[in-house]
Amino acid sequence: MFGKKKQNTNNTSLKRVNHTPSIISEDVRLTGTLTSQGEVQLDGRIDGDIKAEHLVIGSTGIVEGIVEAKSVIVKGKIIGSLNASEVKIQSSAHVHGDVFHDTLSIDAGAIIEGSLKQRFEKEEPELISNDSKPAKEVKALLDDSDSDLSFVNKQAADKTK
Q1: Burial class of residue 78 in the structure, from the number of CB atoms within 10 Å of its CB (0-12 exposed, 13-18 middle, 19+ buried)
Q2: Which residues make Cβ contacts (< 8 Å) with residue 71, sequence separation at least 6?
Q3: What is the pLDDT of residues 120-137, one digit of tens each?
Q4: Predicted structure pTM score
Q5: Within this chain, do residues 84 and 142 fall inside the same structural domain, yes or no?
């Protein structure tokens, strides 16, 4: 009752709770992989890969490596591939590499040297109808005595009989 506090044992995950963006200023140069669960504002230079939820590459920002994010706004320079669901390339941007995207916006004046490839979600094939013909019926159509005739010619021959 008194003296002991109940401890919360519900540690579900270590997700980011602070929504303040991580800012890498203009005078910072990093070498290696940068990973963030939130937003990253890059005004400096990164020689390596970036994995973030949301990424803004400022007009002075430079990335030499692979960029993977949910959404990316590019005002600076990327030398390497960019893979994101939503990509916005603004007029001051230079992208030297392939861009893989779901949605893409490119402002006039942006420089892109590479290919633009839309990602496609893997979709499961849907059945058009559940009333498919049994294999015996299909086999009976194929095993007719006039096997040298095409299906259309078979239908025409049956009409004349």
Answers
A1: buried
A2: 53, 54, 55, 84, 85, 86, 87, 88
A3: 765 455 555 555 555 555
A4: 0.64
A5: no
Domain count, the chain: 2
Q: Which domain holds residue 153?
A: 132-161
Is residue 4 assigned to a domain? no
Whether 30 and 50 have beta carbons less than 8 Å apart is answered as no
Domain check: are 32 and 108 in the same one? yes
Task: For residue 102, report the phi and psi dihedrals to the nearest 5 degrees.
Answer: -95, -50
Is the C-alpha dihedral spanning 25, 35, 95, 20 positive or negative?
A: negative
CA neighbor of 21 nearest in space, from 37, 41, 35: 41
Q: Where do runs of H (alpha helix) occur along the chain? A: 135-142, 151-160
Domain membership flag for residue 123? no
Task: Give yes or no: residues 30 and 86 share one domain.
Answer: yes
From 121, 29, 98, select the one nearest 87 (Cα to Cα): 98
* Residues 24/39, Cβ–Cβ less than 8 Å: no
